Every structure is written in C-alpha cells, then in structure tokens.
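Order emerges. One example.
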Amino acid sequence: VDFGTAWNSSGNDNPDPNTLASVGLGLQWQQGNNSTARLDWGIPLISVDSRDRTWQENGLHFSVQWNPF
C-alpha cells in the first residue's frame, strides 16, 4: 500500500487530484553491498486523468542503485 498527498505553498493552484493511493508488489535484487535493482508494479486506487501512457503511468517502476563506497 502506498499513499501520498501534495499541495502548493505558493500562489499556484493545487494539483488535482492532490491525493494518490495504490497497492502493488515489488521485487528487489541485491548484489553484494554495493548494487541493488528494484522492480515495482502498482494498481491505482484513485483515478488520475493523464494523456501520458509511460511505463510509470501504467504502474511500473524500475530502479538501479550503485554505491561505490
């Protein structure tokens, strides 16, 4: 379960919707102490109108992290 809310402290309009929520699964692979790869898949619980159809907009997120020290 993931939940977030946002607002603007300036004079700009707040995002609509300003709250997001989702459920999903994630896999993490760690190689030693320095490298991590992660794949997350989520299903939105709050609908968001978006014309973008990127992988992230479809609920997928992939990240790779490497720490040299």
About this structure: Residues 7 and 14 are 5 Å apart (CA to CA). The longest strand covers residues 19-31. The chain has a mean pLDDT of 89. Residues 24-69 form one domain.
